[in-house]
Amino acid sequence: MEMNFVQRQTQGLAMTAKMQASLRILQMSHIDLTAHLAEQALENPCLEVTLPEALPPLPKGLGGGARDPDWDPVAALEGEKPSLYAHVGRQIALAFPHPAAQRVALAFAEALEPTGWLGASVETVARAAGVPVPVAESVLARLQQFEPAGLFARNLAECLRLQAADKGLLTWELSVILDNLALLAEGRIDDLAELCDGTPADVRAALVAIRGLDPKPGLAFAAPDMAILPPDLRLARGKDGWQVELNRSVLPALRVTAGPGTAGDAAARAWVSSARSRARWLVRAVERRQATLLLTAEFLVRHQTAFLEAGPAALRPLSTEEAAAELGLHPSTVSRAVAHRMIETPRGTLPLKAFFSRAFTPGSGADGPSQDALIALVGRIVAAEDPVRPLSDADIVRRAEAEGARLARRTVAKYRDLLGIPSSYDRRGRAA
């Protein structure tokens, strides 16, 4: 067998170190960016960084003093308890794979108090998430199944009831006692016994079970040591329509300085010149990051005006590929720009990813409805039904078709499941 060696010349795009660093900066949150810039300022005498006043404390060693040389990051991670919000967030990501239901679940998570109770009514959360109250209640019912039991309770009685049910202790008598905790607080054991059709001894036995429950399950987690992070962008309606601006209160101020004197030392002068060049590049990279973020947000607001004014039902199909084509960017750049970015709007603080939605029919583009809009439609139809005569999936298909949306019964069943809405048979049982 004869072997030949052939040389071939091709053209391709290689990712330089600066391009990779620029992409990392684009993907950083404002907290990570500030920590990164503070770290760079420690190494570069030509870079001056002014931290924003609203910034939570940086990790020790990033503009906050020297780190203990014996500090073990792995051991520290193992020893720290997770925060309540991190714990709940992980469960939400697993329990609500669809963005529409996940948005509602995250709205409930934002309303959580450190005790694990809800600090807002279901109606308030539903209004903030832009969904009907029955849909929000269905999402809340799933959230109340999270571990540990008792999270997302609206009051003490509900918190204790969730825990008692989880432990298999919830009898009819205990449920009556939990509904009348005021009598228990006043020591009216005989009145409670009469309500339970039992004896005072039965009430005292139930009281022992109640004392074994945790009235504030959220306190078992690490206390949050910083406030909820402020949004990266702000949106307001002006005279010329919606106006997007960067939230500059969370951004560090950068300045390139001349650096230390070199006193005629050629090697020192070359080193300072190189440091100044790195500082200028870093400033330009941050400016490109802010410009790309603002450009992408303006595109999303421009194409999803109806969503901002009418809610999820008006969300039009929009993909990162469409955004990239119009903005002259690569789709991966758009994905990096919107990842973990929040925008403050009159409808509440939303992730930028909430402005994207797939078309219900692939390839239909903006001409067809989005999946999120159809999911919201199913939720709206169920919310308006007669509780005594709940609609079957076939009925929902006909109602949706009357509004111009063609759905299959299996699609309706899938969307019901995403919204946490039981079948018509189970809904009829609840109404009874």
TrEMBL record:
The keyword DNA-binding applies. Keywords: DNA-binding, DNA-directed RNA polymerase, Nucleotidyltransferase, Sigma factor, Transcription, Transcription regulation, Transferase. It comes from the Bacteria. GO terms for molecular function: DNA binding; DNA-binding transcription activator activity; nucleotidyltransferase activity; sigma factor activity. GO terms for biological process: DNA-templated transcription initiation. Residues 79-257 form the RNA polymerase sigma factor 54 core-binding domain. Residues 271-428 form the RNA polymerase sigma factor 54 DNA-binding domain. One of its GO terms (cellular component) is DNA-directed RNA polymerase complex. It holds the Pfam family Sigma54_AID. InterPro entries: RNA_pol_sigma_54 (IPR000394), RNA_pol_sigma_54_core-bd (IPR007046), RNA_pol_sigma_54_DNA-bd (IPR007634), RpoN_core-bd_sf (IPR038709). Sigma factors are initiation factors that promote the attachment of RNA polymerase to specific initiation sites and are then released. Belongs to the sigma-54 factor family. NCBIfam families: rpoN_sigma (TIGR02395). This is RNA polymerase sigma-54 factor. It comes from Rhodovulum euryhalinum.
